[in-house]
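hey can u check if this looks right to u? its 308 residues, i copy pasted from the old doc so theres a chance i mangled smth
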Amino acid sequence: MSITNLKVIYITMGVCNVINTLHDSAINIIGVVESKQRNVNKQNEELKNFCLEKGLPYYFMNEGCNDCLENWVKELEPDLIVIYGMSELLKGNILNIPKKGCINLHLSLLPKYRGSHPIFWTFYNYDLNPGATVHFIDEGEDTGSIIYQESYELPIGSTEEELVFLSSGIGVKLLIKSIIDIENNCAPNIKQPFKSPTVRARQIQPDEYKEIINWKEWEIERIWHLLRGTQNWFNVFDFSEIQGNVSKWRILNYVKQDVKYWLKLGKVYKRGNLFFVLCGLGYIYMEISMEVESLFLSLDLLKNIFVY
């Protein structure tokens, strides 16, 4: 039995704790729209299979078919559209379909970090008190009225996965509360300030990354925290002193101390078996995987398979 009678269409880019919790909490999801990831015009098989398993109508939101999406949504006659993870803004012809409007879960304390990449800018600004916001959607970018939001303390050195787990865990509880209150016509509707206190949370280009870090003057804790939180990025460092092709890197610990300035800041060096990047106020150590190591590992696995 559903905890709400509202008919909800859910828009997302994949399966995560949010859609699982909404479904397990008996939110009346009547359809799921997959928003394609940027630069990837390919369906998420995990999400597609999730919908098949749960008996949920599924729609892949590919390019150039806004009228098709409009017709699909209209046929389901939703009361509410709920979004968590969408690669583009929802257009007005879709916004106006559900009787109770459209809401979004955004992983920041709006009006901070409006935009598609709030997680990166949370780490970049060394913001250790982030949060989650559920808000109504208008035609602006994360500018709609706030329903609920909540902050939490982020431990220094957290990874992106840890931040998303904490924020989305809080956020899905706010979503459920918002849906119930929207049905009962008692949801808060708090208008946002026109101006955000932070820059737009845009996507930065890979070659920008190393340029926007102040390797010389920032406290080493801030640089370490940013690097820990963005370990899924690649074009961060100058690896020209390292032989071979780097396939993966992970940040370990850091040491605050005076450095030898004949070494280049932001460049990766090797000392014995240790890899490190140099900052103005110390050393940040890392582990590195090389492409050749992955090749040898694959060959070893094949040998184990075919040699009896």
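The CA atoms of residues 137 and 176 lie 16 Å apart.
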